[in-house]
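User: I'll paste a sequence; please echo it back and then give the predicted structure.

Assistant: Echoing your sequence first, then the prediction.
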Amino acid sequence: MNSTPASSLPKHSPSTGASFETRLKVGIDSYCYHRFFGEVYPTQTPPPSQLSFETFLERIEDFGIDGLSIESCFLPRFDKGYLEHLKARLDYAHLDRVYAWGHPDGLEGGSNQEAFTQMLEHIPYAAQIGANVMRIVGSSLRFRFEPHAPQLEKLTVMLREAVRVAADHNVHLAIENHIDYNSQEILELLHRVDSPFLGVNFDSGNFVRVLDDPVEAMERLAPYVLATHIKDLRPVKNVPANAWHFFSCVPTGQGVVRNEELAGILQAHHYQGFLAVEVDHLHPDFEGEEERVVRESIRTLRAITLAL
């Protein structure tokens, strides 16, 4: 560890009833299917058909996963009846869950007050679906090359207020590294806010994209990890190295990320969440094959957890 953790910060995920001896769990993030929910990048082709969120839940029933991270941007509505229905479905499937807010630009480096108000509104939604972890986004690649010090100052003010709201609902906020900040900056933000209701949604691939080694980042941040996005990436020929998708997604174990080491560090820190497979921009070798990549990644992560 490069820095001594603040004593009041979380040392492992909020308890879900699992013992520390339980093997790491495996899940997915619904963003894997973003094309099928209607978000198609300019470099991608539209899918042959789209999915409703209900159909998506049916589609993943045979995946054999332990958890699901739910991107709120793809939910059809947020009324109490629907959220209770969603909770019942997740309970029936015995799925751990993370409620994910913030796509695509989150708080825009602390400059978007309207987004902040919306984020606070979503905290009780997380509680209503039975999620005690809510992924949040502080910024994005749009603001990556603007000065970070002012962004971190503004985010500190926002998040000090947000953790008080989160505590009222027993929801722990997990800020994702969203192709914006490196692990040192994330750690600095955690120390500034200094609350057990703020931790990290650790995205292995996004650290690669800012040239921050994921293993070193995990060694620094593991005590605060509440949720994960497990991406594996490979460079793409004929794509500029400064393009965000120069490193594009491949099945876990077939890219540059040292996934076994990441899992081992989490296991050593008694991480109680799940390893959530996430794919965003697929490598051309796997274009249009989200489901194949997801299923292969689940199998690989399951094998890694069994070997620990």
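The radius of gyration is 18 Å. Confidence is low (pLDDT under 50) at residues 1-8, 15-20.
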